[in-house]
Amino acid sequence: MKFARLPIIITMLASGLLLSSAVFAKKQDLPLVTEDGLELIKGTKLAVVYAKPGASLASYKRIRLVEPAVAFRKNWERDQRSSSINRIRISPNKIEEIKGKLAAEFHETFVLVLEESGYELVGDNAEDVMTVRPAIVNLDITAPDVNNFGRNYTYVASAGEMTLYLELYDSVTGDLFAKAIDRREDVGFASSYTWSNSSTNKAAAQKIIRGWADILVNALNESKAATAN
User: Most Cβ neighbours (<10 Å): which of 95, 100, 114, 169?
Assistant: First the structure.
């Protein structure tokens, strides 16, 4: 099976080539058909969705969920050092730890939501198995909790934002039949400021990730229902 080279895709996305505000503000400016033959789908719950013409999710009863890759927003580390909020230096080890924790949280949340909805998660390929290949890009944590000793009293209006890049494949043939891009920002504290720490950052991330998982489940269910009718 051949997948698109995800590290290259992440580099493109994180550098803003596909994530500029203009892309999301002017969906009509996006290409109607991608180089791999996927067509732009309008009226979806995600910002940008492309799908193979005539593709259906109904035949997939089980899911192979690939561990997500995670990439911070370009210059995020530099901006943290110069920020009027934080002015902190984050070690490479800490950055990798944050990425690892978010990847684990993403995987656990998606597995939980999918299994609660009756979908079986597997590690092998089969005709009824769909491969879901996610990545979190442009991760922007407003105030990361890097203080391991004592409390870090940082107050923010939003925990930050991140963008999902998702690809759906046939697990046997490796054919890509859908991909999506969606940016979400934490708005839990929009009307006030609250103390930011690892717990509040985790809760904000969980809320966004669960929303994405619910959208995937709804798409699977709707495809099944359409086929049944």
Answer: 169
Residues 6+ apart with CB under 8 A from 177: 38, 51, 52, 55, 168, 169, 170
Cut 0.85: pTM above it: no
CA distance 10 to 19: 11
Q: Which amino acid belongs to residue 176?
A: L
Position 96 in a domain = yes
Q: Give per-residue pLDDT as tens, 150-173.
A: 445 454 556 788 999 999 999 999
Q: What is the number of domains present in the chain? A: 1
Angle ∠(160,163,166) on CA atoms, nearest 5: 155
User: Is residue 228 one of the residues assigned to a domain?
Assistant: no
Specify whether the CB–CB gap between 128 and 62 falls below 8 A. yes
Q: Say how far residue 199 (Cα) sits from the centre of its chain.
A: 20
